Amino acid sequence: MELEALEQVHSEVRALGAQIVVITPELERYTRALHKKLNLTFDILTDLHLKVAEQFRLVFTFPDYLRDLYKSFGSTLDRFNDEPEYRLPMEIRILCMFQDFANEPLAA
Fold first, then answer.
1. The domain containing residue 55 runs over which residues?
2. Is residue 57 part of a domain?
3. If we measure between CA atoms, which residue out of 19, 105, 23 comes closest to residue 59?
4. Whole-prediction pTM value?
5. Which terminus of the chain, N or C, has fewer Cβ atoms within 10 Å?
6. pLDDT tens figures, 34-91
């Protein structure tokens, strides 16, 4: 649902000179299928083993009781994310604006 919403505004974002990039711990084989299924026009990148999220200190480790609860529902986070410790990144949105100074005239 969120990816579909991002797709709906992607052309507007591009018109402003920006782009959308999604970073997820899901393995590429799953994100590739999702990208195709939803016909997305922006990139989905894999943060394998949450290395990027760890650098920003945005990793949540499930407590044992929550891990057990998820497993009782048949959750397979470990399979989709190759993450046996049941860790997930905290969800964030970052807006980055970059100026292309190489093509700008110098001020007098």
1. 2-97
2. yes
3. 23
4. 0.76
5. C
6. 999 999 999 999 999 999 999 999 999 999 999 899 889 887 788 888 888 889 999 8
